[in-house]
Structures are given as C-alpha cells and as structure tokens.
Amino acid sequence: MSDCSTDIVIIGGGLAGAALALLLRKRRAVSVTLVEAVPLPISNEVPFTPSFDARSTALSAGTLAIFSQLGIVDALLPYAADIDVVHVSRRGRPGFAEISASEENLSRLGAVVENRWLGRVLLNAVRADSGITVIAPDKAVALTRLEAGYKVCLESGTELVCRLLVAADGAESKTRDMLGVGAEHHDTGHAALIANIGLSQPHKGRAYERFVEDGPLAMLPMTDDRSALIWTGPRARIEHLLALSATDFLAQVQEQFGQRLGTLKSAGERVTYPLILTRTFAQALPHAVIVGNAAHTLHPVAGQGFNLTLRDLHLLADKVCAAPNIGELAPLQAYVDARVSDQALISRVSHWLPSFFRIQTGAVSHLRQLGLIAFDMLPAVRSRFARKAMGFAND
C-alpha cells in the first residue's frame, strides 16, 4: 500500500476531469491527481485517422475560447468541422430561423470534433504537465473525511490524501454516492439515436435542428463530407429506427430531414441511449465538489451538455485557485451560487423545447411558427440567444 499527498484529486479522467485538471493548473501551481477507472490510450503511439462511425461533440465558440486559453485549440481544429450557420425549422410548417457566425462577427459559431480526437488532445496536454499525475486504470473504493480534506482509498491499495476531492465520474457517480449526496434521475421515456451520415454534397458548415413529430433531429457538420445525426424521440420509435435495415433507416432520415443536404449517401453505425436526466441534490461540500454529468445531465437538443460543463469548470477553477485554503466551502459554494442560474436555464430550455415543438394543437402550432419567423426577423433577439448558446452571456 502506498500513500500520496496531493492538493486535488479528480475521480473521473474523461473530458470533464481532464479539462478541469488543465484549468486548475493554468491558474495555480497546485498538484492534481486524476484517477480513471478504464485504461487510457497512449495518445501518440499511432497517427490519428478519422472514423466514419466515430461519436462527436459540438463545441461552442465559448468553449473554443476556453480551450484557446489552455493552448489546445490549434491542436483541435485540424480534425474539427466549423459550425458557421445554425438552421432551425419545424417539419411540415413554414418558417425557419438562422443564426450565423458572420452576423455575430465571429469566425465560427462553434465546431464539431470526434470524441477520440478531443480526448486525445486533452490527454496529451494532461500528460505534458508535470503537475498532473494520472492513475489509470484504478478507481476509488472508499473515502475518509479528514479535518482539512479527504483520504481516497483506491482499488489498487493506493491511498491519496487531498485538500479537495472532485467527483467527475458520470451520471451514475460512485464518488457522489460515497460522499453521501443523493441525486434525482428523471426518465423521460425518450431515447437518442446517434449515427454519422455520408453526404452527397458539402454541408458548408451548416448545422440543422429539425423538429419532427416525435422530437428533434439534428444534423451537425463533420469533416470528410459527413454530418452527425442526433435523433431523439419516444423510446419505442427510436428502437424501431435502430431495427431498420441501413437502406430503410437512411430513407427515414431523408424523409424527415428533407433535401437541404441533397441525397443522403450512407449511414454509419447506429447507437442509442435512454434520455435519463440527472440532477444532484448538492454540488459543493466542505473539501468536495461534484461536476459534469455527476452534477447534471441534459437533453441533447442544441448540444449544450459539455459546453455547460466547461463553463462550470472554468469558474470552479477560478474560485478554487483564488481561495487562500484549497477546498474550503465558501468559494465552492460561491461557485455553485454563480452557476446555478445558467445550469437551471439551460436545463429548462433543453427539456422544454422538444416538448413544445411536439404540440400539434392549432393555436399553439400557429403561435410557434409565428415565433420562429419573428425570431429570424429580429436580429437583436437572435443575437442575444446566440451569445447565450455560445457561452458568451450569463443573463
């Protein structure tokens, strides 16, 4: 058994945990230990090659700005596709709305990057920082509250003593449970289907959010003439789509999405997951904080999940590193108080928007379409919404 003292232990070495480690180190010369339950790849062993079936993440312009502060955005962009325009419409109804980078005086609204590449870039930066220790594969099996921190017992027998413990191990967080913090899990009865679609014509940096009868269908630009499809709806409907042949599935996507990207050529591997929304009952404790999907999960509409988390982590790193004593409750609670309105707003909109667009009642339907048209015709309103979605506004 070995014993090690470190300023901060982060349980969970995924995107959120790795990003937080880098943000903390950017602000203060703290020692950080990152613990991940699964083996992490040796990132530089082989050249990166995009995969047709790869899962991807939409990064907002605000997220890219944070990554620029960390010095990693230039490494991300070669394998990312810019989002220049977001087009929102309702199938079978007139009217649409568009948000464009040029209107917001930005080089891009965001970018879509394969998760494998995003993870590799973050992990390379983590491994290049001598102040970050990575322990993987290993996992926390017990916590002991100390006067000024925690002792973390790992499955390997290693014991870590830290001043701040961070739970970043996902919606089913075992660390959150060991801290004695509960969470509510709301099963929406819906699921998401993800697949990459081969295109017959360039997407030109256009992202589409198409509201169909069962729920939203998004097509996000990717590299190599691909779009990332995220289609959500009632679980039975999604299971039906999963069971279709590749040809029939592509025909369904074409029918619901239309011809905005021409004739769709091919569909990659389909993956589904249930939409179960999680919210922890507390995000901050003395010498402990809960972040990422362990703190909150969202409906995937508008792709706000990771972007919301990164805004959280950016402020958390500021509060932690400005505090005289790392892990004391006051700055952790100040972080939660400052972020709760943004978290609540994005959660409400993400949950409410798909339901609103499913309503078929005549009055609501007409009002919704008038609202969509008005939104497109009012630049000030559209710009305010866009800046919020990109992470540049907290109101």
SSE topology sketch:
Layout: E1 3-11, H1 15-27, E2 32-35, E3 56-60, H2 61-69, H3 73-76, E4 80-83, E5 85-90, E6 96-100, E7 110-114, H4 115-128, E8 132-135, E9 140-146, E10 149-154, E11 159-167, H5 174-178, E12 183-199, E13 206-211, E14 216-222, E15 226-234, H6 235-243, H7 246-257, E16 264-267, E17 271-280, E18 284-285, E19 288-290, H8 305-322, H9 329-358, H10 362-377, H11 379-389
Parallel strand pairs: 1-2, 1-11, 2-8, 5-13, 11-19
Antiparallel strand pairs: 3-7, 4-7, 5-6, 9-10, 10-11, 12-15, 12-16, 12-17, 13-14, 14-15, 18-19
Task: Describe the structure in brief.
By secondary structure, the protein is an alpha+beta fold.
Index terms:
395 residues; alpha+beta; eight-stranded mixed beta sheet; 11 helices; globular
Describe this structure in words.
With 395 residues, this protein is an alpha+beta fold. 36% of the residues lie in helices and 31% in strands. It has 11 helices and 19 strands. Strands 1, 2, 8, 9, 10, 11, 18 and 19 form an 8-stranded mixed β-sheet that branches. It is globular and about 60 Å long.
For the biggest sheet, the summary is: 8 strands, mixed
Low-pLDDT regions:
361-378
Question: Given the structure, what is the number of helices?
Answer: 11
General form = globular
Mean pLDDT over all positions: 87
Distance between the termini: 50 Å
Q: Which range does the strand content fall in?
A: 25-35%
Q: Structural class given helices, strands, pairing?
A: alpha+beta
Q: Kindly report the oligomeric state of this protein.
A: single chain
Radius of gyration of CA atoms, rounded to a whole number: 22 Å
DSSP strand count:
19
Residues in helix, %: 25-40%
Order of helices and strands: EHEEHHEEEEHEEEEHEEEEHHEEEEHHHH
